[in-house]
Design goal:
With about 70 residues, this protein is of the alpha+beta class. The protein has one domain (about 1-60). It contains 2 helices and 4 strands. The protein has helices at about 1-5, 20-35, and strands at about 10, 15, 45, 55-60. The longest helix has 14 residues, at about 20-35. The chain is globular, with a radius of gyration of 13 Å.
Length: about 70
């Protein structure tokens, strides 16, 4: 939570949002990878690089709990 608050706005429980440069996104991701438990925590980063297509990237090694959604 502390790491995300350095870069983003806290919206709800474990949800953060913000407009980051590519460099700050890389820094945030590196800090999160060093902070979270990669085997137990579940972290998703959503990006809109061109403002149109949503990219969804799971940065932890845990299974996606939404993989059975249609």
């Amino acid at each position: 939570m502390k790491t995300c608050r350095k870069y983003l706005t806290h919206v709800q429980k474990s949800v953060f949002e913000g407009d980051l440069t590519e460099g700050k996104t890389v820094l945030l991701r590196k800090e999160l990878e060093g902070t979270v438990d990669m085997e137990h925590d579940f972290v998703i980063m959503y990006t809109l690089p061109d403002g149109k297509i949503l990219n969804r990237d799971i940065i932890t090694n845990t299974p996606d709990p939404t993989d059975n959604f249609i």
